[in-house]
Design brief:
This protein has 363 residues and is of the alpha/beta class. It has helices at 14-24, 32-46, 51-58, 66-78, 87-94, 131-135, 149-157, 160-169, 176-179, 249-258, 275-278, 304-318, 328-332, 335-339, 344-362; strands at residues 7-9, 112-114, 172-174, 186-191, 197-203, 218-219, 243-246, 263-266, 286-288, 323-325. It has two domains: 7-114; 131-362, no CATH class. 39% of the residues lie in helices and 10% in strands. The strands form three sheets. The chain has a four-stranded antiparallel beta sheet. Strands 8-7-9-10 form a four-stranded parallel beta sheet. The N and C termini lie far apart (81 Å).
Length: 363
């Protein structure tokens, strides 16, 4: 049997829907359960951009709370695997006389193609991220103190002017500026070499500068492509300045303060160190700084993470790339450090803490 031809499902204009719901006073979230489902549904449709629409629809509820609704939407964005289908919103409003299949509720842009085969795979549409969405998360003169545990620690260990410069250069966003919750997540915006905003990652940190593993990092625009974090700094940089690649965004931020002779970037995950991600750096000198790992590669005896990156490096070198791996960390770490899966930024933080303690003793 031949599969039926693809049908088209137009993306919903969530803002227009929210305005109509508010104007009609329709309470589609009368209970806590439906309130949470509404948040999950808005997160599934529009990600971070659905936050205002959620508030507008939830505000009809007599027991509406801005603070609680912010926390609810943050949870919805973090738990992407539990998001509710947009069909929930369609069904809920249909019972109140609102037909979301009307043309007025269609978002502009190309409709999403839904393949009507056994798996019903959906091709996600890339979302345009307005620059104002990013700008609203940036410091822009606002105090950094108390907005994030990681930044608080960095301002203690390093000169505040250097930390502020790094935050500005990397367009570090603060979720606390949007939620009003002290100590909220950092937002790492992914901007390519053409200054196009492609994606963003929201990550929570503890006061020890480590990621809060109870809350997994969230990709704010799951359907969008990704690029190296810090890639936008390539524009206007000295063509002879070498590029340093680390895995985590936090490490790129810290190392830009500690070792500014490199232009630091992060691939975001172990498997993102590949030719596609590195392509914009084709004509630059690149030095990779992989994390260490307790797991060893059987062939080389090195960390599994280093062995994986070395394979990519060897392939690129055969194509004429000027790319190497820094082996110092791998050669000098102890077993405890391997257990902790440290990277170059962890070593830099440890040294900075020792210097900070010495300064306190002198005083």
């Amino acid at each position: 049997m031949k599969p039926s031809s693809p049908r088209r499902c137009y993306p919903l204009d969530l803002d227009r829907i929210a305005r109509d719901v508010a104007a009609r006073g329709i309470d589609i979230a009368p209970t806590r359960l439906t309130w949470e489902r509404l948040a999950n549904c808005c997160a599934a449709i529009a990600g971070e951009q659905g936050r205002d629409a959620f508030h507008l629809m939830a505000a009809v509820w007599p027991d509406y709370s801005l603070h609680d609704s912010e926390l609810c939407y943050n949870r919805a964005l973090r738990h992407t695997g539990k998001q509710v289908s947009p069909g929930y919103l369609v069904s809920a409003l249909k019972s109140h006389g609102m037909d979301l299949t009307q043309r007025r509720y269609r978002a502009s842009g190309t409709p999403i193609k839904i393949i009507n085969n056994k798996n019903r795979k959906t091709q996600q549409q890339m979302k345009n991220i307005p620059i104002n969405t990013m700008v609203s998360t940036l410091p822009n003169g606002r105090s950094l103190i108390g907005a994030n545990p990681l930044i608080d620690q960095l301002t203690i260990l390093f000169p505040q002017t250097a930390v502020l410069k790094a935050v500005i250069n990397y367009f570090i966003g603060f979720n606390a500026f949007k939620t009003g919750n002290p100590g909220d997540a950092l937002i790492f915006w992914q901007i390519n070499e053409k200054n196009q905003i492609l994606n963003a990652k929201r990550i929570y940190y503890k006061f020890d500068c480590h990621r809060d593993k109870k809350i997994p990092p969230t990709l704010m625009y799951p359907g969008n492509p990704q690029c190296l974090f810090g890639l936008h700094n390539l524009k206007g940089a000295d063509p002879k300045q070498p590029i340093a690649i680390v895995e985590s965004e936090k490490s790129a931020l810290i190392m830009s303060i500690v070792m500014p002779k490199y232009l630091w970037m992060a691939c975001g995950s172990l498997n993102n160190f590949n030719e596609k991600m590195l392509k914009p750096l084709r004509d630059r000198k690149i030095v990779a700084f992989p994390d260490v790992d307790i797991k060893r590669d059987k062939a080389s005896g090195f960390s599994v993470s280093l062995a994986l990156w070395e394979k990519t490096v060897n392939q690129l070198r055969q194509q004429g790339w000027d790319i190497t791996i820094d082996m110092e960390l791998e050669k000098n770490v102890n077993s405890a450090q391997r257990m902790d899966k440290i990277d170059v930024a962890d070593i830099a933080l440890e040294q900075a803490r020792k210097k900070h303690v010495e300064r306190l003793k002198r005083h």
